[in-house]
Amino acid sequence: MKLLSQSKSFKLLKEKGLKAWLEYRYFKILRTYEKHIVLKYTKCFKPLPKNYKFILCSYSVSAHWALGNFL
Questions:
Q1: pTM here?
Q2: How far apart are CA 42 and CA 39, in angstroms?
Q3: Does the structure show a pLDDT above 80 at 42?
Q4: Which end of the chain, N or C, is less packed with Cβ atoms under 10 Å?
Q5: Predicted confidence band of residue 34 (pLDDT cuts 50, 70, 90)
Q6: Which of 15, 59, 60 is nearest to 24 (CA)?
Q7: Secondary structure (H, E, C), 18-58
């Protein structure tokens, strides 16, 4: 087990202060959860058929904009 004084987190807190340490911890936790979420949902995706001409990436929940543009 690492000593507390040898950890990267403790050194960052000591040298750069609380703000830098909080930012470091936030992004470290965020990256960890991002990996788990991506791995969980990539199993659900199926490969696209060869005859697709486009893929529409939209943030909205309904297809109103897509239907209005493409049909």
A1: 0.44
A2: 5
A3: no
A4: N
A5: confident
A6: 15
A7: HHHHHHHHHHHHHHHHHHHHHHHHHCCCCCCCCCCCCCCCC
